[in-house]
Amino acid sequence: MEWLLDLKDWFMGLGEKYNVSPIIFGSIYVGAIPFFFLSLGWLVKRIKQRKPIVTPVLLTGFFFVSAYLYLIIAGRNIPLWVYFFIGAMIVYGVYSTIIKIRKQISKNE
């Protein structure tokens, strides 16, 4: 179990090194999940109703990237590879969300 304590110490140490709180980052990450799915459901509903989708798209995107926004805004001395990783996560998230929306729409037509 010592490895678990070492892992915790390493993870918490990243917060000090990069000027971010791992607790805040994790809280934003986990806390945004229900809001992401609610806004995603709202988006699908608006698409089916053929109503404007600007607000649900913006909210869905915001909740998806909110933890990363915290990292980018509050973080200092973040390595370049982290920004590439965040970009890749966002691209993958957008792609998978579009696939989910298309499946949901076609399933209910």
Tell me what the structure shows:
The chain is mainly α. The chain has one domain. It is 85% helix and 0% strand. It is built from four helices and no strands. Helix 2 runs antiparallel to helix 3 and helix 2 (22-48) runs parallel beside helix 4. The longest helix is centred in the C-terminal third of the chain and has 28 residues, at 80-107. The radius of gyration is 17 Å and the shape is elongated. It starts with a helix and ends with a helix. The mean pLDDT is 87.
Order of helices and strands: HHHH
Helix content: over 70%
Mean of residue pLDDT values? 87
What is the CA-based Rg, rounded? Answer: 17 Å
Low-confidence stretches at least 5 residues in length (pLDDT < 50)? none
Domain count: the total is 1
Strand runs, count: 0
What portion of residues belong to β-strands? under 5%
* SSE class: mainly alpha
Question: First CA to last CA: what distance?
Answer: 52 Å
Q: What would you call the shape?
A: elongated
Query: Largest sheet, if any?
Result: none
Number of helices: 4
